Amino acid sequence: MTGDIGLAPPRSAPGCATPAPEVLRERGQREVFCGLTGIIWLHRKIQDAFFLVVGSRTCAHLLQSAAGVMIFAEPRFATAIIEERDLAGMADCQDELDRIVRQLLDRRPDIRTLFLVGSCPSEVIKLDLGKAAQRLDVALGGRTRVLNYSGSGIETTFTEGEDACLATLVPEMPAAAADAAPSLVIVGALPDIVEDQFLRLFAELGIPVAGCLPARTVANLPAIGPQTRFLLAQPFLGDTCRALEDRGAKRLDALFPFGAEGTTDWLLAAALSFGIDRMHFNAVVAPGRERAKRAIAHRHERLAGKRITFLPDSQLEVPLARFLSNELDMIPVEVGTPYLHRDLTARELALLPAGTRISEGQHLDRQLDRVRADRPDLTVCGLGLANPLEAEGLSTKWAIELVFSPIHGFEQAGDLADLFARPLRRRDLLKV
Amino acid sequence: MQLAVWTYEGPPHVGAMRVATAMEGVHFVLHAPQGDTYADLLFTMIERRGKRPPVTYTTFQARDLGKDTAELLQAAIREATERFAPEALLVGASCTAELIQDDPAGLAEALDLACPVIPLELPSYQRKEAWGTAETFYRMVRHLADRSLRPAPREGRRPLVNLLGPCALGFRHRDDVAEVRRLLDVLGIDVHCVAPLGARPADLVRIGVADFNIVLYPETGEPAAQWLSREFGQPVVRTVPIGVGATREFIAEVAALAGVDPAPALADAGSRLPWWSRSVDSTYLTGKRVFIFGDATHAIAAARMAAEELGFTVCGLGCYNREFAREMRAAAARHGVEPLITDDHLAVEDAIRAASPELVLGTQMERHIAKRFGIPCAVISSPVHVQDFPARHSPQMGFEGANVIFDTWIHPLVMGLEEHLLTMFRDDFEFSDAAGPSHLHGGVATPAAHPAPQDEPAEALAGAIADALTIEVPATDTAAVTWTADAERELRKIPFFVRGKARRNTEGFAVLQGRREIDLATLYDAKAYYAQ
Known about the structure:
The complex is a heterodimer.
Chain A: E1 23-26, H1 39-45, E2 49-55, H2 57-67, E3 77-81, H3 84-87, H4 93-107, E4 113-118, H5 120-124, H6 129-139, E5 145-150, H7 160-169, E6 183-187, H8 192-205, E7 209-213, E8 228-232, H9 238-246, E9 250-251, H10 259-273, H11 278-303, E10 307-310, H12 317-328, E11 331-337, H13 342-350, E12 357-361, H14 364-374, E13 378-381, H15 383-391, E14 396-398, H16 400-404, H17 413-429
Parallel strand pairs in A: 1-12, 2-3, 2-4, 4-5, 6-7, 6-8, 8-9, 10-11, 10-13, 11-12, 13-14
Helix pairs in contact in A: 7-9, 10-11, 10-12, 11-17
Chain B: E1 2-4, H1 12-22, E2 26-31, H2 40-46, E3 55-57, H3 62-65, H4 69-84, E4 88-93, H5 95-100, H6 104-109, E5 117-119, H7 129-144, E6 160-164, H8 173-187, E7 190-195, H9 201-205, E8 212-215, H10 218-232, E9 236-237, H11 244-258, H12 263-266, H13 273-278, E10 289-294, H14 296-309, E11 313-319, H15 325-335, E12 339-341, H16 345-355, E13 359-362, H17 364-373, E14 377-379, H18 398-424, H19 458-470, E15 482-483, H20 485-492, H21 496-513, E16 517-518, H22 520-530
Parallel strand pairs in B: 2-3, 2-4, 4-5, 6-7, 6-8, 8-9, 10-11, 10-13, 11-12, 13-14, 15-16
C-alpha cells in the first residue's frame, strides 16, 4: 500500500469549503414516522430502561404496527392511553400517571430508568411530563430514575426521537474529573456487534474510549467534561450534539462511518485528534478497509451507473447517497431528507456530485410527481409508498431497514451495498 | 388512562381509512399531525395493496399550532380534490386534531366543492377502529343514498341483494365475498352492490333498488343496514354463513326472503367438512378443549362450529368488541362458559392460562400467547398479520370456508402431536440436551460455547435444524479447525437463525485457506468471501 489512507474532501479550514448546495425546501403532506418509533430500537439498546408513551390509542397502534412481532417478547415499552375522562377533567392526569407508573413498576420491578415519552396528544393538552418525571423521580426515591422527552409527530420525525432521548441522557452523564485525560465518546445507538467492532478498532489505535451514548445501561453512561471529544455515529443527533457541547465536550467533524471511505474518515478524525501516529493508523485500519472494499466491489457491477432517489425518512439519506455515489458509482437524482443539519453534514454534502437535487421537508404528491418524471432505477422510501411505487414499475428499497440493520463500519459495508443491490437483483431474477 | 402494550383495535380514523380504501372514487382528508401516515402501511404491507390508500393527511407540526391549522386543512382539501377529483370526499380528524378543535365539516363546506362532502365525527378517546368503520360506512350510505329509489316490480327479473360490511383490512373479506356471491348465484339471486369493498359512491346512491340486504360482518355493516331497513324497508339477513350449519341456515333464510328454491344451494357437493369430521381419523378430536377469542362475529361462529361440527368442548369464549357484548353473553350461555369481554390482552392471557385448553382459536395476539404456553393455535379473527392475507383462495364463509376452517384448525393439532412425539424422543441420545446442538455444527459442543437449549427459544433449535438441512456441508474435515475465544464470542452475536450457517461457512473457509485457527480476522474474511 502506498501513501496514507485517503481522506476526502480535504479537511480545510471552515469557510473555504465548497459553497453550500441549493436545497429545495417543501412543505405539505409528509409521509414519515413520528419520533415515537425510535423506541423500537432504543429499548433494545438500553437494557435497563422502560419507555412509557403518554398518548392516544393511535400512539399504541403505531408502536405495535412498527414493532411487528417484537411486541410479544414482553417488550420494555407501553402506552398510557389518554381517555375521555382524562380530557374532561374527571380524572387528574398527573394522578392517573402516578397510578399507571406504579402499576407498571409493580409488574416490572427490574426497571431502573423510566422514560415518560411525550406524544402529540400529550403536547397539545399541555400535560407537563417534565414535572411528572421530576415528581415521580422523587417519589420513587432513587429506586427508578424517571426522565422525560418528546417523541411527538408535531415535534420530531422518526430518528429525531433518538436525538430527543439521548439529549435527555446527557445531563445524566457523570462529570469527568477536572484533571482527567482526554477521551472519546461514541454517540448514537449502534447494534452491539458494530459498537464492539468500533471499540476494538479504537483500542488497537490506542485511543482511550470513555464509552458510548447510549450505554447499554443508563447506570453505565460515560463521564463527560471539557476533555471529552465525541464522534457522532448518526447524522440525526443535532440536539444531543448541542447538549454535549454545552457540557464542554468537543465534536470531531468527520464523514459518517458508512462504507470504506466514510469509516476511514470517521476513525481518522479521532486518530488526528488524539495524535495517533499515521503509520500506526494505516496499519490498524488497512485490513478492515481492504475487506470493506472487497465486499463493496462484489456489488459494484450491479449498482454502478444506476440512478437513485431518496425520499425523506431518517436523515441518513445524505451520507448514504454519498457512500453510494463515491464508492459504488451510483447517480443520486434527488436526495430528500426530513431535516438537514448543515453543519453536521457539510463534509457529506461537499462529496455529492454537482447537480444532485437536495430536498428538505416534503410535499408528498409533488415529490412523487418528480419520482415519476425522473424514473430512477431505485427509490428509497417508506413502507407506505414502496408497494404502490413497485406497482407502477419503479424498483424500491424500503428505508426503515437501513435503521434496523447493522450498516455502519468496515465489516458491514458489503451488507450495506447489498441492501441496495438486492431489489435490483430480484427485479432481474423474476420472470413472472 | 389505561396501560396498554397491545391493542386489538386501532383508533376510529383507521376504521374510516378502511372504508375509504375499500371503495373506488372516494378520497379522505384526515386532519392529523405528522406521523399518522404510519397507518398507510397497514394497507400497503399487511394487505399488500399496490396503491396508496386514498387518504391525504394535513400533517401539521408544532410550529403550525400557533398559526392557522384550519387554513392548512382547507388547503389540503382543496389540493386533494383538484388532484384526485373524487366522486365523494370524506373529512375527519384524528385524535390530536380532535383536541385542537378545528371544524372539518364547516371548513369543508365553506369551500363549496363540486363533489359531495361527508364529514365524520370520530371520537378517538371513546371509540375504536371497528366503530369508526361502521360509522363511516353508515354516514356515507345515509348521505349518498337516493331516497326516492325503490326495487322494481319482481315480475320477470331475478332477486337483487346488497352485501354489506366487507372492507379493506378485513379478515378474509375478499374471499368471503366471492364465496357468498357463488352461493347466491346458485340460488338465482343477483348482487346489486357489495359495499364498501369495491363500491363507488354512485353504487351507494342506487343502494335502494335492491330487494334486501345481507350483512356479512355486523361489526362494520349493521348500522348502515338498520338505517336502510328503516328508510327503504329493505329486510336484513343477519345470519353469518360461517360453518356448515350456519351456511345452511343462511341459504334457507335468503331463499325464503327471495322466494326461490334453496335446494340447489343446499345440495352443494363442495361441502367436505361433514365427512372429514365423521371419518375415523377425526375421532381423537372428540372433547378437545378449545378456547375461543376474537371479534364477536367470528368468535361466536367458531364456537358453534367447534361444538357442533368438530366435536370439541368450548372451555372459554370471548370478544374484544364491547359493542357486541349482548350477543357474546348469549353465545357463552349456550356453551355453558363465562363470557370474557375485554380489550386487555393480559386478561385474555390469564383466562387462557386458567382454562388450560388444548387448542386456542383467536387473533394474532392469542397466537403469540398460545405460542408462549406451547398450546396449538389457529387464527379466526382480526387483528391479523400479513400471513393471514394469503394469495390463495381462503374464505371463512360458505361450504368452501368450512373446508378451509377444518384444515386450518386441525393442522396445528397434528403439528401438536408431532411436537409431542419429538419431546418424547428428546432424551434419546441423538436428541439429548447434554449433547447440545453439536451434531448440527460438526464439532463437539462445550457448555460455554453453546448455552443449554432450554435457555433459547424453541425456534433457535428449529432454525439450527433448518440450517443443518439446507446448508451444504463442506466435504473437508472441519473438526481440525479451532475457534479463538474472541471469534467464538463474536459468533454468538450473530442472530441464532443464521449462526449455524455462519459457523459452517467460516469453518469451510478456514479449511479452504489452510488456516488452523479461526480468529476475528478469519471470521470477517470469510464473511467478505461469501459476500461474492
